[in-house]
Amino acid sequence: MARGTLADAHVAAIQHGLVDLPADATRIGVVRRPTSWFHAAVDENLPELGPPEPLLESMRDAEADMKLQGLCEEGAHNAAWERVGFEEAYRDHLEDDGDARAAIGALSERSASGESLALVCDENTEKKRCHRTILREFLER
Fold first, then answer.
1. Measured over all CA atoms, what is the biggest interatomic distance in the chain, rounded to whole angstroms?
2. Residue 120: which residues within 8 A CB-CB, separation 6 or more?
3. Residue 44 within any structural domain of the chain
4. Backbone φ and ψ of 44, nearest 5°
5. What is the number of domains present in the chain?
6. What is the DSSP-derived secondary structure letter of residue 126?
7. How do residues 40-59 score in pLDDT, each as one tens digit?
8. What is d(CA 79, CA 13) in angstroms, rounded to the nearest whole number?
């Protein structure tokens, strides 16, 4: 059986038809605290693959500080990402958290069995760094 495709998108692109996902792709939300409108855009959500709450809080605090220093939203987001060591902290979460490891294993099995998957969260990666690109790398290994 052929391996399923793996794609990713931000929720607004899906809602506005701005992304070309495989028609058969299961849209998997990877958001820690999804809103009701987010749920409407995905087939399921795996909050254990969202960044851990302390990391999200650190990111929000650093981003607010960067905005106060005059950076635009995207600039503040990306600078905060670097300041808090987001990428390393999120990779550690994926490697060390049992629930995250189990979810990655389950998604890998689904993909290996031929299911096409699309990882979905809030960030537009054309402008901002996002955890789903790191998660996608994990799943592609």
1. 53
2. 8, 9, 10, 11, 14, 27, 28, 29, 30, 31, 41, 42, 132
3. yes
4. -160, 165
5. 1
6. T
7. 999 999 999 999 999 999 99
8. 24
| Phi and psi, residue 43, nearest 5° | -85, -30
Contact between 15 and 41 under an 8 Å Cβ cutoff? The reply is yes
* Residue 1 forms part of a structural domain: no
Domain for residue 91, yes or no? yes
Q: What is the pTM of this model?
A: 0.92
Q: Is residue 80 part of a domain?
A: yes
| Residue 31 near residue 47, CB atoms below 8 Å | yes
SS (H, E, C) 25-47: CEEEECCCCCCHHHHHHCCEECH
Q: Residue 28: name the closest of 121, 105, 129 by CA.
A: 121
Q: Which domain does 98 fall in, by range? A: 6-140
